[in-house]
Amino acid sequence: QVQLVESGGGLVQAGGSLTLSCTASIRTGTSIAMGWFRQAPRKEREFVATISENGGITNYATFVKGRFIISRDDAKNTVSLQLNSLQDEDTALYFCAAGAETPTPRHGAYKYWGQGTQVTVSS
What we know:
The chain is mostly beta strands and 123 residues long. It has no helices and eleven strands. It has strands spanning 4-7, 10-13, 18-24, 33-39, 46-51, 58-60, 68-73, 78-83, 92-100, 112-113, 117-122.
């Protein structure tokens, strides 16, 4: 059964950094495009970043403004998200997603989802 497990969230001060990781229990080479989304309280799920199957294409939400970096290691079926210069507005539950045919921001394109890891930024 496919499982995605996120880790690395926590409580950080504004301006701080975290690195989120996601491990997918999927056969090597079958994850296709992977991505990260987030959801804040009383907000809709929001696209953060996505990466193509071979890692050659990355796309970010406009609010990222160069602060985040998505990467993947297909040999390990993992995807990471480096979060830098975190702001109060970045507080959310961050979800890993896999299985999209293209690196799209559309959440409906992803077949598999993790349970999320909480990022909380305090002033």
